[in-house]
Amino acid sequence: MSSLNTVLIGAGGKMGCRLTDNLRDSEYSMSYVEVSDAGIERLEKRGIKVSVAADVIAAADLVILAVPDIYIGKVASDFLSSFKPGAIIVTLDPAAAVGGQLPKRADISYFVSHPTHPSVFNWEEDKKKHFDYFGGIAARQAIVCALMQGPEEHYKVGEALAITMYAPVTRAHRITVEQMALLEPGLAETFLGAVMFTMREAMDEVIKKGVPKDAVFDFFMGHINIDLALCFDQIPGGVFSDACYKAIQIGKPLIFKEDWKKVLEPDHVKYQIDIMTRIPDHQ
Description:
alpha/beta, 2 domains, eight-stranded mixed β-sheet, 11 helices, globular
């Protein structure tokens, strides 16, 4: 791995710093690119020397684009002519890939990987691991990976890099970029995010009705725990009570529209990506 020159673009950003922390002591020959003053300051505090993109891109075997989705297409296009033939360009999210924002060039590879984040069913006895909710520091997590374009042997190269970036990793799932888009934004953000915000609103509504906040929080979090375990088969033979099933049948049609599953249709997911990656008019 030491022979692989790797450039991390956006190294001082929120996600970039997470990757920097995991890659800095790895076997990859790293260069870190950052243009924002705040990002450069964060890297300097880590003792990281910032490189100029023009000085390192041309020799890079791997280029990681740790920049916001709305800028990935522009950044990739800006450096497109500088990538050496056979270089692997890595994105951290499927949005730019599925949204058609990655510039075309036949002699480079595009690899996409994203962390699942630590599971609610992880058992982490160590508190540092337990409270690593995002992952990539101490808690175990899986990752999903896709080789969008390039020779088959580049998949393993990209996967190995992703395992290092998101460590500690339990397993890597190989899927397509289209499948990854169904997972995010479709499942994890558009669907689950909306459900999570609605759950919070429901909790706050009960608090407004006079039930003590701490009692509501304890009761709700405990029931989230047991309901998840029952719903996702974590308790052998465990089932909801008959009364709970009746309550679910009352609640579903009141809370969800009949056509809610359209948010997971590929065409709708592409619509979501288009909205999410659109650069605001004022920029």
